[in-house]
Amino acid sequence: MAVSKVTVHFPCPVERVWHTVTDLTHTAWRSDLARVEVLDEGRFVEHTKSGYATNFTVTACEPLRQWAFTMENGNMSGSWEGAFESAEGGTRLTCTEAVTAKHGWMFPFIPGYLKRQQKLYLDDLRKELLK
């Protein structure tokens, strides 16, 4: 299992960061997604621009503090957790992602994949929050 943990600071209130990250009806800011399909209160599916679907199940939702879920698709399974904290001048967000590849040949590529995905997500989030 590969794990990637990143902490970033955003110069805006925790309420704004929380709302942007957890609002599954407004995801146009995500450059990698075509759409998000909300199945019910605790489950959703992200569809990439290339048409690949990943299923998510929310495992924790503590407003303004923690949002976590499991995720699975044909290539991997894992979890993601976002920890939100008010910090001087804004918000500190710590993202922890853990992924296991479902195909042995993919194992060496997972750490780099995680880093790239987290960087893209956080770059997109920063652009959205600084509008």
TrEMBL record:
<protein>
    <recommendedName>
        <fullName>Polyketide cyclase/dehydrase/lipid transport protein</fullName>
    </recommendedName>
</protein>
<dbReference type="Pfam" id="PF10604">
    <property type="entry name" value="Polyketide_cyc2"/>
</dbReference>
<dbReference type="InterPro" id="IPR019587">
    <property type="entry name" value="Polyketide_cyclase/dehydratase"/>
</dbReference>
<dbReference type="InterPro" id="IPR023393">
    <property type="entry name" value="START-like_dom_sf"/>
</dbReference>
